[in-house]
Amino acid sequence: MPSFRLDRLLCVNYNSYNTIMHLQLNPHSGEPIYRQIVEAIKFQIASGRLAEGEQLPSVRAMAGDLKINMRTVVKAYDELSHAGVVVLQHGKGAFVTAPQRSRAMGARRKEIVELAKRLLAEAASMGASSDEVVEIVRSVANNMEQGK
Amino acid sequence: MTELVIQTESLGRQFGSTHALTDVSLKVTRGTVMALLGPNGSGKTTLLKLIRGLIQPTTGRAMLLGQDGRLLTNAVTSRVACLFEGFVPPRTATVQQLFDLQAGASPKFDRGMAECWCAKRELPLNRRMWSFSKGQQRWVLLGLTFASRADVLLLDEPADGLDPSARRELYDAIRDHANENDVTAVVSTHVIGDIERVADELLLLRKGRVDLHAGLEELREQVCEVETSASHPARTWSSELVLLGQREASGSRLTWLRAPAGECETLVKRQLTNSDLVRPVNLETLYLALTEYRATLDRGEAAFGSEPGTR
User: Count of alpha carbons within 13 Å of B189, Cβ hemisphere only?
Assistant: First the structure.
C-alpha cells in the first residue's frame, strides 16, 4: 500500500519551511556552535529584529534548520535564559524578555565597563587605537539602529 | 535516550603481521553522528567492518545494538545499513530494479524516500546504472541506504565522487535522520569541512589506534591556536594544557593546545604577552596539526624542546 504523504509526493522537506529566523553561523570558525547561536540571537534582539515577547523557534525546528544536534540548541537557549535574555516557559518555548532595566544601574554599568575593557584590550593586541575602536563602535551602533 | 548502539572493548584486528586495528574501546549512543577520521591506512574501514560483523576481530569484541559482532542475527542486521567502498551495483540494472531488489531485501524499505532522493539530482528511475557518472551512481546507492530506514548507518567515505552541493545534501540528510528518527551514524571521510558542520563526535584514528575521541562542541571550547614570535624560545605551558602540535612558519610559531577541563582561551590568556594572539581552531586545522605533529614525533625529530615525552 503506498502511503500518500504530501511531502513525499511533492518531494519536499518541510524542514526548509521552518526558517523563522536567519542566523549566520560559521561551522568552520572553531567557535562553539551554541555560543554562536547565543551571540546571533543577542544581536537580533539588539538590532530590533526580535522584539520583546517574541517566541524563538522550537528546539526541533531550530536544529532541523541549522542542521545541528538538538542538544546544542538546548544549550544555547539555556545560556540565553541564564543571561536573562529569554525566558523558558515549560512546554511552550522560549520568549524574548524585556531589556533588563530593573537591574541595579551600578551593576549594569560595571558589566558594560568590563566588556569595553575587554574590547579595547583585544583591539590593542591587533594594533588598533582606542579612537579607532570608538569610531567602529559608533558606526556599528548606527548600522544596528538602521536595521542593517 | 542514552542507549548504547555501538560498543567496542579492546577491539583489534590483525591481517597477517599487520596490526590494522589495536585496542579500540568505544561507546556510541543513540542519535549520535560520529565523524571517523584518520590518514589512509589508519583503520577506519576495518573498524566499520568489525562493527558490522563483516570481518572478525582477533582481539576484543564489538557490540552492535546489544549483539556481539561475531553473531549478529537478522533482527539486528536488518536495522543497520552500510555503504562500503567497492560495492558495485549491477551495471545493467535500472534504478527502479535496484529499488525492487532492495525492497525484497529490507522490509522497511521506503520507496517514496528513495524516489525523492533520486529526484533531487534529477536521476530518471528508468535509466540503467552504467549510463550514470560515478557520482550519480553513488547518489543512487546513498538513496538505497537511507531509504532502508535503518537505525544505524555505517558509511565508509560516502561523499566519495560527489560534487560539493551533493555532499552538502548528503550531510544534511545524515543530520536530519539523526534528529528526527534518532538514527546513529558513523561516517568516515577525508573531507573534514563537510562533516564538521553536522557531526557530534570525532573519532580520530592513527596507525590503528584511537588518537582522539571527543565531542565536537567540547573540542571547540577546549582547543585553541596560539601565535607567538618564532624568535623567542618555545614556551612551557601550564600543566592544565596539553600540547597538540606546533609549527614554525614565516617568523611566527603556531602552537595548538587543548585544555581538557575547560576553556582553552581563558587558560592561555593568563600566559600571553601583548604580541601573542590566541584564536579558535577549526577541525581541519586541528586534524592537520595533530597528524603532522605526531608524524614528526614518530620520525624522532626532537625539534620541540618544550614537550616532555608525549610518546
Answer: 26
Please give the radius of gyration of chain A, using alpha carbons only, rounded to the nearest integer. 19
Q: What is the ipTM of this complex?
A: 0.85
Q: Does residue B139 contact residue B67 with C-beta atoms inside 8 Å?
A: no
Positions in chain B whose pLDDT score sits under 70: 1, 301-311
Q: What is the identity of the amino acid at B206?
A: R
Mutate to test the interface with A, among B171, B216, B285 (most CBs of A within 10 A): B216
Question: Which DSSP helix (H) or strand (E) runs through A125?
Answer: helix A105-125
Q: Could you tell me the pTM of the whole model?
A: 0.83
Q: What's the pLDDT tens digit per position in B244-265?
A: 998 888 888 999 999 988 888 8
Burial class (CB in 10 A: 0-12, 13-18, 19+), B44: buried
- C-beta separation of A51 from A96 below 8 A: yes
For A45-78, b/e burial (b = at least 16 CB within 10 A) is bebeebeeeeebbbbebbbbbbbbbbbbbebbbe
| Three-state SS sequence of chain B | CCCEEEEEEEEEEEECCEEEEEEEEEEEECCCEEEEECCCCCCHHHHHHHHHCCCCCCEEEEEECCEEHHHCCHHHHCCEEEECCCCCCCCCCEHHHHHHHHHHHCCCCCHHHHHHHHHHCCCCCCCEHHHCCHHHHHHHHHHHHHHCCCCEEEEECCCCCCCHHHHHHHHHHHHHHHHHHCCEEEEECCCHHHHHHHCCEEEEEECCEEEEEEEHHHHHHHEEEEEEECCCCCCCCCCCCEEEEEEEECCEEEEEEECCCCCHHHHHHCCCCCCCEEEECCHHHHHHHHHHHHHHHHCCCCCCCCCCCCC
Cα dihedral sign, B39-B41-B47-B53: positive
Top residue of B122, B217, B266 to mutate, by most chain A CBs within 10 Å, is: B217
Is there a contact between A27 and B116 if contact means CB atoms under 8 Å apart? no
